[in-house]
């Protein structure tokens, strides 16, 4: 088999697999279907601080978690989730929701999409902590 034919087969195969995964809906970002999904993702990463309350974002891609003595956030990062404790991190209000700026290099900023009523709920929950 010539190198050109082999190259076409490899590139075509990879493109075909990517297309099949995309049309099956397996390439989209993770979304929490309910609060229990967010709690499970939170407790997988921060098991020493069990969740007492959960507030999903408008697009179901992030969730505010409250626990005894503080709050945190868990959000989708591709097909997985990431969680951070919000120690002293206060959000900035944006046109589409809230923006969290984290001090660590691995997750410098997070934009959470919230409608007006959800934004008020999140801000009140953050103030209560």
Which term fits the overall shape? elongated
Summarize model confidence as the mean pLDDT. 89
Rg result: 19 Å
Helicity range of the residues? 25-40%
Helices, by number, come to: 3
**Distance linking N and C termini:** 66 Å
Count of individual beta strands: 7
Beta-strand residue percentage: 25-35%
Q: What is the H/E order?
A: HHEEEEEEEH
Strand order of the largest sheet: 1-2-3-4
Q: How many structural domains in the coordinates? A: 2
Largest sheet: 4 strands, antiparallel
Structural class by SSE content: alpha+beta
Poorly predicted ranges: none
What does the model show?
- β5 and β6 (97-101) form a beta hairpin.
- This protein has 3 helices and 7 strands, in the order ααβββββββα.
- The chain is of the alpha+beta class and 129 residues long.
- Helices cover 35% and strands 29% of the residues.
- The chain has a 4-stranded antiparallel beta sheet with strand order 1-2-3-4, sandwiched between helices. It has a 3-stranded antiparallel beta sheet with strand order 5-6-7, with no helix packed on it.
- The chain has 2 domains: 1-28; 35-127, no CATH class.
SSE inventory with pairings:
Layout: H1 3-23, H2 35-45, E1 51-56, E2 62-67, E3 70-77, E4 80-85, E5 92-93, E6 97-101, E7 109-113, H3 116-128
Summarize the structure.
The chain has 2 domains: 1-28; 35-127, no CATH class.
What are the key terms here?
single chain; 129 residues; alpha+beta; 2 domains; 4-stranded antiparallel β-sheet; 7 strands; elongated
